[in-house]
Input
Amino acid sequence: MFELVELTSFCAQYPHFFVNDSIRSYHNTLKEAEQAITKAVALKSGCGCDEEQIFGYYVRELPWGVAIHGNDSLCTRSYLADGSFFCESIYSMQNEPFPGRSAKDCKFAKGDIVEVLDPNSNGFNVGLEIVLELPPNPERVTEIVNKMAKMYPDVDKEDVAMMCFDALDDAYVTLDSDVEYMESHRHRQSVMLFPPHLPVSDSIRKELERAYEKNAT
Output
């Protein structure tokens, strides 16, 4: 089953704004969910409403007959405001280790300024941050798992992999301000990052770039 979530914003402006999330519909296939996004985009673009703006969409693949918690899903896909596909989670709620995110699957590079969706009880707070580190790639994951497997020879290698990498590791390390690293760095899930929807002011850009230069290796 595929759950279509619409993300909308009102009077969006930096440095922070709020995005509301609302379940729009459920579908049997991903194709049906994506067709519903296309129809929703066309409907919004023709309504002439300037107050509510589409921020984007999520499509979450949900299992049948299994209890889920919060935003757990088999897979989450993000879509931009024009309905185009943007990013897909590489993990799932199933007990599988995170295999690593290859360079071709990373939508951002080090030093990119991004919008980050930070979940709260009513939707998402959105702010600008700068990418410091990319999610670990498959080669890095394999390297660490092999190293840990030698330290725990009596533990099954797949269990070692689960000890080392899980859903939370499909994340970018970002900085949200020009302060000390421990106070400013964040671990942001890949599907929570979007390209900036609005022009970024020089003052915000310079602060984030200073933070990156201070912490980049």
